[in-house]
Amino acid sequence: MESIFTLNFLSEILLSTIRMATPLLLVALAELYSERAGLVNIGLDGIMAFGALAGFMICYITGSPTLGILVGAIGGVLINMIYAYCTINLCAEQIVYGMAINIFAPAVASFIYRVYFGVSSTLAQATLMKTIAIPVLKDIPLIGQLLFNQTPMVYIAYLLVPVTAIFFNRTKAGLNYKAVGEHPKAAETLGINVVRQKYFACIICGLLAGIGGAYLTTCYVNTYSDGIVAGRGFIALSAVIFGHWTSSGVLLACLLFGFFDALQLRLQIISVTTPYQLFQMLPYVFTLVALTVMGAKKAGPKAKGQPYRREER
Predict the structure, then answer these.
(1) Among 83, 236, 90, 73, which residue's Cα sits nearest to residue 156?
(2) What pLDDT was estimated at residue 275?
(3) Sequence-separated (6 or more) residues with CB below 8 Å from residue 245
């Protein structure tokens, strides 16, 4: 236990927290954009899985992690268009089709991987994205290496937080966007194309969730395997609730979830005699506690989860 109370242990766990919170943050922002338009998408795990596979394969073939991220984003959008058509055009139940995406997309990703690489006990490996240190800032004690010596995707993910806050709260387009999730019929009377806004939300959601999945296989680990997402989509979904549907709240929630994920890995190394499954429970137990404590205090956008039928009054 003495090794826990050291500066080296603290710096390592904080560095891991930043890295582990990044995919959660990307996917939580994806869900934030979706729910602000009234669409509850629980298919984030499926979108991430397909994005992870698409990003890994392109990175493996071309040797370019950046290209892998771009293709992962496109793959996420394509998968989410299935959800968009069914829930927006057909007014189908959003929870049901979100769960369908969670079943369909990982299965497709696993099938494509086995067709291309075959069945083998050895996993194919690709090139990881390199870190880019920001001069001067990286030399700041402790936080320099934490915040200013990361991959470009980490910088982009955290930059999206203030961009999202400004968009939703300081721009006319963002206020119109939120109106669709609060009262779509009233928004329609003001000339806002609700269907188009919802499709736009699905594109953003698929894009960010696909990038979050591709991050896992191009920036975090250099291979793809079944179950690589490991429920991060559901944790991101809970981060949106815990963060009260605000980008700053989502950031705080993701950092907390990332901290507990990093902590459980370090505890496994320190206490090898303790069953590792107990430590693996930490992020999920915290998720349940967070939902229990924070989930009932605020309901989020009023029209979230409700189908929009233009002809209804």
Answers:
(1) 73
(2) 80
(3) 32, 35, 36, 298, 300, 301
Residue type for 42, please? I
Two structure tokens written together for 94: 């959003």
Give me 174's structure tokens.
């963002």
Cβ neighbours for 223, distance < 8 A, ≥ 6 positions apart: 56, 123, 124, 125, 126, 217
Q: Each residue of 231-263: pLDDT tens digit?
A: 999 999 999 998 999 999 999 999 999 999 888
- The answer to whether the CB of 210 falls within 8 A of the CB of 72 is yes
Residue 157 structure tokens:
């993910």
Element (H, E) at 289: helix 282-294
Bridge partners of 150?
A: 132
Is residue 126 within 8 A of residue 222, CB to CB? The reply is: yes
**What are the per-10-residue average pLDDT scores of the chain (313 residues)?**
63 88 97 96 97 97 96 97 96 95 96 91 89 87 83 96 97 95 93 95 98 96 93 92 93 92 83 79 82 68 88 53
- For residue 99, the tally of other CB atoms under 10 A from its CB is 15
Instruction: In whole angstroms, give the CA distance from residue 93 to residue 128.
Output: 39
SS3 75: helix
**One-letter identity of residue 237:** L
Which has the closest alpha carbon to 110: 42, 56, 31? Answer: 56
Report the alpha-carbon distance of residue 211 to residue 42 in Å, rounded.
17
For residue 174, with 0-12 CB atoms within 10 Å meaning exposed, 13-18 middle and 19 or more buried, which class applies?
Answer: middle
Domain locations along the chain: 19-119+141-229
Helix (H) or strand (E) holding 133: strand 132-133
pTM of the predicted model, to two decimals?
0.94
